Amino acid sequence: MAFDGQIVELPLGQDGLTGSNNIAAISPAAFIDATNIAYDSGAIRKEGGATKYNTSVISGAPTVLGGWDWFPTAGVQRMVVYTSAGTLLKDSGAGTFATTLKSGLNTTCVPVFVEGGQEAGTNARKLFTFNGANVVQVLNADGATTSDITTPPADWTGSTQPISGCIHEGRLWGALNNRVYYSLPTNHEDFTTAGSGSLAVFPGEGERIVQIMSYKGILIIWKSPRGIYAIDTTSVTVADWRVARITLNIGSQGPLTAVATEDDVLFVDSGFNFQFLSGIQEFGQLGSKNLSNIHYFTEYLRAVANFGRMDKVRGVYYAARREAHFTVSALGSAVNSARVVVDFNRPDIPRFRWSPRDVCESIWMRRDTSGIPRPLIGDNAGFVWFLDQPARSKDGLGFLGQFQTPHTDFSFADPTLAVRRKSGRFLELVANQTGNWATHVDIIWDGTSVQTVDFNMGTSGVALGTFIIGTDKLGGAIAAAIRHRIVGSGRRLSLRFYNNGVSEDFSISKAFVGFQPSDERP
Fold first, then answer.
1. HSE-up (13 A, CA, CB side) for residue 469
2. Backbone angles phi, psi at 42, to 5 degrees
3. What is the bridge-based pairing of β-strands 384-389 and 242-247?
4. Which of 201, 249, 264, 503 has a CA that sits 20 to 30 A from residue 36's CA?
5. Using CA atoms, how far apart are residues 173 and 195, in angstroms rounded to an integer?
6. Which of 8, 10, 7, 27 is nearest to 19 (CA)?
7. In Å, how far are 58, 92, 107, 131, 441 from 99, measured between CA atoms?
8. For the whole prediction, is pTM greater than 0.90?
9. Distance between CA atoms of residues 338 and 305, nearest Å
10. Three-state SS letters, 272-298
11. Are 360 and 337 in contact (CB under 8 A)?
12. What is the tens place of the pLDDT at every residue in 301-313?
């Protein structure tokens, strides 16, 4: 017998995670939960797993406050980490972190690593470490110890040290209080010889500079709690350099809260909003765009994040997946214990997701054996972790991947359905087969869960109602349509998808709901 009800496709996650509390206004293409998932090539998939870089704990099991993928010379790869024991450690690939580069450093900072040196072809590469409390440390090539920067500005004295640094226009720059300082272009450790110097950045505004970044020939400066500025250094005449205010309305809190994407800068402002610094065509045409407002995402963060640790946020851009990852503290946590991920694979709307699986006090990028930079995190127990691993597990254990659709009345498909009761008949998923395990789907009518349906993610024919709709392989798996009967009724339907077993995955492309509307009319 032919089905005489209505069939509606749900636009799964096309708008990403929203924090809106207005149920009636939430887009049907949004998610109200997006935990440990990824927007993977048009499908909704469990995010990649995590494995340990070092199988043996770093001595003393410290928190890993920061790290860097260091190439002292071409083809020679090292890892440098900064720990809560106040040590800078170097590893040569064995995961032992056997070389102590420096001890006695600040134990609570957000370290900032800057690659420099090689001012001329014969000069060595250098890795600079800024922490706002100790003299800037310099690792010369593949050295076994770091040294204090040789000729810092007179202002950098005692525990009054720069909090942030970067290479800009061939010079090393550092930020302290309300000034930025620049080295000689021929010597990144020399801030005192003629040709080096400093610039005041609107000293009467904000409290202090917290971050600087070189972007498209402009030095961008963030102050806490408010103030964003730019310095045009394109002139060869230093006297022509000028400082301009972009905005006094917003600022930032920490030294690693901004990341450069492919054609923009994304940063976390002092109100925990995610902002774009957009529109650089020429100097003076800088603007900002509040990405969080589009998705009401700050409202979501108020429920799940610790706003008291915004200065500890760290961000990176994962170019291979076109994602920005920011480590944040979950509500009640005194360490970064979650990631906010912003996905840029949809050209018109960046999409948020929330990953509370890992303790991730720090995050940085490391080139893999194929030369692709991929994210690593440092935890609070002496371990460094690879993220985005093929197996959907963490150190051999399962983790929850979950997403939930809005409570929709289906009026996006037919306005007359808004006030009509619907009786569930079936749910059909189009999924890429990932393995012989279940993805559970809670059927929620008018806020009440009435049924859980299990969809097998394995080979065709395992689950009742499974049939192949195509033979093309996607990532090594066959796209299959899987249909199950659902029960219950109501005006609004929400679906919660999840699994959490070892290596369990899902990759869901489409969802169709079949239902029978009542005879009620508006």
1. 15
2. 90, -15
3. unpaired
4. 264
5. 13
6. 27
7. 11, 9, 18, 20, 50
8. yes
9. 9
10. CCEEEEECCCCCCCCEEEEHHHHHCHH
11. yes
12. 999 999 999 999 9
